[in-house]
Amino acid sequence: MFEVLEANNLAPDVRYLRVRAPKIARRRKPGQFVIVRASSTGERIPLTIADADATQGWIALICQGVGKTTRQLNTLGAGDRIPDVAGPLGMPSRIERYGNVVVIGGGVGTAIAYPTAAALKQAGNRVVAIIGGRSREYVILQQEMQAVSDEVYPTTDDGSLGYHGLVTDKLADLIATGPPIDLVLAIGPIPMMRAVADLTRPHHIETVVSLNPIMVDGTGMCGGCRVEVGGETRFACVDGPEFDAHLVDFDLLTRRNRAYRDFEQRRLEEWETAQAGISQ
User: What is the pTM assigned to this prediction?
Assistant: First the structure.
């Protein structure tokens, strides 16, 4: 069992969980993730390790409540326990001295981008962060990103914070007016990552995305997380989760991520009904 040391809300339906996991904290590297179960009979879901402290023995997880399992996790508070947290899993981010790096986080994708942004800065890169959300309350980790970046540009669809527009609009501005960009890391919803890839491709800017397809065991055995990259089948849990954005088949990724949408919705509705009955 893994004790929750701290829990608080970062945005609507987005929760920060600091979890005691000393073995994972000692081994974790930026870009890696864990497989979590909210109950001993529940499904397994991947969550990126947003932060960690090897000395104190904790890892930080940021969870967006979308389906049954993530909603369950978001009910946890300090002192509660998570039955299973397995990791660290996946290939770490490739940290090198590229030069001028733009890190883009869309919504909860900022939580995944943050540790890699910190590592890229520590490696001597100039790091510019673009972090987006629908409105002010959906932009997360702005202060944390400011601490590890040379510049931070929050963007909102409605203009309630920072740049009024999409993260791709701000990226287009930087490409047109700023110094040459050596690397773009984009993490967020699939349409956002696809749009970033389409924008950087004609400029021949190396672009990396972190993929979060359907995943079960996190070891490459189930095959659920297969993606197509450069015409080849890859497994996000062991070959990724980061891949060359210009080679990812986003159409296939989108179709596969929708495969269990109706089932997931039914399970969520059943759980919410049960929760409503308990609270009465």
Answer: 0.89
